[in-house]
Amino acid sequence: MKVLVVDDSGVMRKIIVRSLNAVGVTDVVEAGDGQEAFEKFQAESFELVLTDWNMPVRSGLELVKDIRGSGSKVPIMMVTTEAQKSQVITAIQAGVTDYLTKPFENDTLRKKLDKYVAV
Amino acid sequence: MTTTIPMAGPSQMQQAVIDSTQCVFSTMLGCQVHVVAGECQADSLESSDLSSTIGMTGDITGTVILHLSQSVAVGIAETLLGQPIDGINDDVRDVTGELANLIAGNAKERMENKAIVLGLPTIICGPKHRIFFEPGVTVQDLSFQTPWGQLHIQLAFRDTSKRTN
Q1: Chain A residue with minimal CA distance to B118?
Q2: Which of A18, A73, B30, B91 is deepest in the core (most CB within 10 A)?
Q3: B85 touches chain A (CB under 8 A)
Q4: Is the Cα dihedral B92, B95, B97, B99 positive or negative?
Q5: Which residue in B1, B64, B79 sits closest to B33, CA to CA?
């Protein structure tokens, strides 16, 4: 399973990658903003995308729209501090398949990841 | 100097930041932090080696500033990453920004009746640096006791009700 992890915080990417490793996923590609992520998404094939919302250059929401606009049905999990109902709805309407609000406990993220790894 | 806040929004924001700071430490770092009573002293702020600022616009206009000493920043980074860290490096600077982002973001979500937009964090690094505020900006100081020492948060609010345009 190959996963794309997108967050402008290198530390947050490390935390997410550590959780991915803990559920057995080691094939991980990282990106620091939505533009870099979409370039990598177009160049390689991924089974799961985890993305932050607020990032410089190009946001996670724009990345979701780019990915869906390309015709891909890859599962996308938004991992963000944005937690208001209207924002969650906006993200889902754009094509997000799962949503996790920061701050989160590692166990919560791992349980969500388990769902995708088990498929 | 700390000023009494007459505005409801900033007072609500202060409580939201207290709650969010405790939530972030409990959730991401598995520890409790406590508010330190009394005003934050200027020399406490001057002992910070790293600061992270996040701008707020919308119903509340201002800045959230997180101040960390090297030992507190390194302790938090080591716990978050699960590895020893020798002094301030890219990871420690990144943790400082992300921590401010998590605290401000979580506080924003607690302000259910306010529409607030947050900017991206800016990190300031340097021993004994100071941050100055323009006249007319009201500043609230908060101090928290963490397992690694004290951290300080300043909330700087601009009263936009007096705008003429």
Answers
A1: A54
A2: B91
A3: no
A4: negative
A5: B79
Of A9, A15, A18, which has the smallest distance from its Cβ to B97's Cβ?
A: A9
Provide ipTM, 2 decimals: 0.85
Record: contact B118-A54, CB cut-off 8 A: yes
Measured in Å, how far apart are chain A's first and last C-alpha atoms?
Answer: 10
8 Å CB contact between B103 and B22: no
Q: For B44-56, write each residue's pLDDT tens digit.
A: 566 789 999 999 9
d(CA B66, CA B59): 21
Task: Please name the member of A56, A81, A84 whose beta carbon is closest to the beta carbon of B101.
Answer: A81
Tens-place pLDDT, residues A43-66: 999 999 999 999 999 999 999 999
Residues in chain B: 165
* Nearest residue to A60 (alpha-carbon basis) of A41, A85, A44, A73: A41
Q: Output the six-digit token pair for A82.
A: 């944005």
Q: How far is A96 from chain B (nearest CA, A)?
A: 20
Q: Determine contact, residues A46/A52, Cβ cutoff 8 Å.
A: no
Q: Do B90 and A10 touch (CB under 8 A)?
A: yes
Burial class (CB in 10 A: 0-12, 13-18, 19+), B71: exposed
Residue B62 token pair: 């201002």
CA B36/CA B151 separation, integer angstroms: 10
| DSSP H/E element including B137 | strand B137-146
